[in-house]
Design goal:
- There is one protein chain.
- The protein has 253 residues and is α+β, with helices and mostly antiparallel strands.
- Helix content is 43%, strand content 32%.
- The radius of gyration is 32 Å and the shape is rod-shaped.
- The termini are far apart.
């Protein structure tokens, strides 16, 4: 009786028709009914309209299987909705077959799950709309596991499905030794920053990429960002050329 009344979970005992025979104080607190009111009610009275249609089926299933865990939603006395996890089992109470249901308020869990879904949606939007290439690839061979559309465009593919199916990044380094250096550095440090290398596009043309990434050794993959810096490198090369020309001209004076 002490455990029954002082649990943080709601306890309900009802017969196989769903009529309440006993409830604990937590059940009264969560749903806002008194014990006397509960004993004049049935399971269907506290289920949301959507769940009430399933109540009899759930009772029959518990009667048949002996126990069951499922999620549902109850209606408080003030008609607000509370999501719950229900652990029901068949018991004998006052010499009749009944069901004991331990009901946990999972409002916070549902709020947390929704927050995760919201943040995942935000992450997906940022991921796919980023103006830099985002990539997750297998360290062993450079197989692309996930990427955004910008990365596909950077390597000359029409969409990310094509690049995932067709490309091994390890084979697209213009200088294969740069791949070896990158792999060694990221394995030693766990990450790499501002690593420059030339890559082949799908059509065989070349672009300069600036690569930063982190290793996830337990997964066997690396996640990183690739920025196309071809224009910058061309500008740098042009500046070097102009400087060399200027130095040569000065020597002739």
């Amino acid at each position: 009786r002490h455990i029954f009344n002082n649990s943080n979970d709601a306890f309900f005992i009802h017969d196989l028709d769903g009529n309440f025979l006993e409830v604990n104080e937590t059940a009264c607190r969560i749903l806002g009914y008194s014990r006397e009111e509960f004993l004049r009610m049935s399971v269907e009275d506290i289920d949301t309209p959507k769940m009430a249609d399933q109540a009899k089926d759930k009772i029959k299933q518990v009667e048949q299987d002996g126990e069951m865990i499922f999620e549902s939603a109850h209606m408080r006395r003030d008609k607000t909705r509370v999501p719950v996890e229900i652990n029901s089992r068949k018991i004998e109470y006052n010499e009749q077959n009944c069901i004991l249901s331990v009901v946990r308020d999972i409002t916070q869990r549902k709020q947390f799950e929704q927050a995760l879904r919201d943040s995942e949606e935000t992450y997906r939007n940022l991921f796919h709309n980023a103006q830099v290439g985002l990539i997750r690839s297998r360290l062993e061979d450079g197989k692309i596991l996930e990427c955004n559309e910008q990365l596909a465009k950077m390597f000359g593919f029409d969409n990310k499905e094509e690049i995932i199916n067709e490309l091994l990044v390890s084979l697209n380094y213009v200088d294969p030794d740069r791949r070896r250096i990158m792999k060694q550095e990221i394995q030693e440090r766990g990450e790499i920053e501002n690593f420059e290398s030339k890559f082949y596009r799908r059509d065989g043309s070349v672009f300069w990429g600036l690569y930063s990434a982190r290793l996830y050794p337990e997964k066997g993959w690396i996640e990183g960002v690739i920025e196309d810096i071809t224009e910058r490198k061309q500008d740098e090369q042009e500046l070097v050329r102009i400087k060399q020309q200027s130095q040569a001209a000065l020597k002739e004076i």
